[in-house]
Design brief:
230 residues, alpha/beta, Spore Coat Polysaccharide Biosynthesis Protein SpsA, Chain A, eight-stranded mixed sheet, 37% helix
Length: 230
Amino acid sequence: MKLSVIIPCFNAGQYLVQAVASVREQQASFSLTTEIIVIDDGSTDGCVEHLQGSDLKILHQDHQGASAARNYGMKEATGDYLLFLDADDVLVNDAIELLYQKLMQKENTAVALGMAEEFISEEIDAKTAAELPKKEVPFGAFLSGCCFGKKEELLKVGFFDTTLNQAGETVDYLARLRNSGLSVVQLDKVTVRRRIHLTNSGRVLMQGQMQDYATIIRRRLLAQRMSNKK
């Protein structure tokens, strides 16, 4: 059995090596071959130039955003299972084993969701770090490093919405997953460490993110009204 870890990357070269290493350094007691798919989303920082390894599949596209990059990765993935990871985040050292074991507890489970915790990136000075908002307790409803599922089931949810590229695309995908009727289980353990830095997409693109969220809410309300009319 094979796992495909899908990592979209846009000008995140200073963090990407750590993300890939966190996949390679997993401690696991089961046999699950891993392929790491990095999608270079039109980066200008040469982020993939120093990546090597037989477990790596590097894809290139013109800059289209994280949604299109993840979709490209999903289409090229050869694994039986998928795990999404952002280029600036890192898996905890037993994340894959925890998620896989949770997924396999019940036969018909399609997706296992983990928890995330935040940390301030090491290059941030103490004064700036004190001013950056950071969640102090683990949290759910997060995609990167937390969404582990059977590929054939995740494809039923569909691809990421390329019109939502301001961080709202992950909220939309998780909402569609929750409403898909697939069996989704929640793991109450941290599987990913989310890096807080000065160029987080949610921080830099805050206005667009709010617009994405408004679009998602309108779609959900419309879908609910249509369902109620049936």
